[in-house]
Amino acid sequence: MMKTSDVWLGDGSEPTGENEGHRVGLERATLSDGKNGPTHTKRKRAPGYHLGKSGKAMNRRDFLGLALAAVAMPTFAKGRSNQPRTLSLHHLHTGERIKVTYRVGNRYQRKVLQTLNGFMRDFRTGEVITLDPRLFDLLYDIDRGLGYPGGPIEIFSAYRSPQTNALLRKASGRVARNSLHMQGKALDIRFSGISTARVCKSALSLNRGGVGFYPKSNFVHIDTGSVRSWRA
Ligand SMILES: [Zn+2]
Fold first, then answer.
1. Of 15, 112, 166, 194, whose Cβ has the fewest other Cβ atoms within 10 Å?
2. For residue 225, which phi and psi values (nearest 5 degrees)?
């Protein structure tokens, strides 16, 4: 079973890599990365794939747009299907478990996302924030990279309110002042029965956002910020 120290470290410990000494710079980088990165582009272009609903025929511009999108985002072609994306999660602090299909094809399921926002709440204060749905795509793709092991993904830490982050910073000098956890863009996770080294490898292979490896505390930090990685 999990030790209390694991819980504390998993929730509070933050890397200097996430430390935002240059907050403005990081935010800009994050936005920029998002615009240029495949995931964000994917989301931007997603409505273009709903043409079947509204229009019977594509004009040349639409067609070119789709063709370009297909070239730029090879993985997105898979997302055009109605393939459901299901996540099985276990929150280690609240003890709650959930299994939800948060996305079908390229459509996020709004109500399910709301449920997930609640699940990922700041468990200390009960505050809920809208999480970046790309976090769930990260979870799903890491799971896929591991061959869908089937066990729940264990959540150490998700949203942190400013109060909670300040509290954790007092306890540990390694908690970032402006942690991406406070923006609903970061999760600390591990996979039941899978080594954190393998989880980390799967996360790094995606080359999306930040990946922090915490082998001693037995978790991996993932976020939808700029692409970077570190080891605690
Ligand atoms: Zn973290």
1. 166
2. -80, -160
CA angle centred on 151, ends 126 and 106, rounded to 5°:
75
Q: What is the rounded average pLDDT for all residues in the chain?
A: 76
Q: What is the pTM of this model?
A: 0.69
Which residues are near ligand 1, the ion (C-beta closer than 5 Å)? 186, 188, 221
pLDDT of residue 150: 85
Tens-place pLDDT, residues 205-228: 999 999 999 999 999 999 999 999
Cα(14) to ligand 1 centroid in Å equals: 6
How many CB atoms lie under 10 A from the CB of residue 76? 19
Distance of CA 152 from the midpoint of ligand 1 (Å): 19
Q: Tell me the CA–centroid distance for residue 221 and ligand 1, in Å.
A: 4
* CATH number of the domain within which 220 lies: 3.30.1380.10
Q: How far apart are CA 116 and CA 99, in angstroms?
A: 10
pLDDT of residue 80: 59
Q: How high is the pLDDT of residue 106?
A: 94
3-class SS of residue 226: coil
In a 10 Å sphere around its CB, with 0-12 CB exposed, 13-18 middle and 19+ buried, how is residue 168 labelled?
Answer: buried
Total domains in the chain come to 1
Angle at 197 between CA 117 and CA 93, to 5 degrees: 35
Q: Which residues pair with 42 in a beta bridge?
A: none
Q: Which domain holds residue 20?
A: 4-231
Question: Which alpha helices (H) appear in 147-212, and where do they start and end?
Answer: 162-171, 196-206
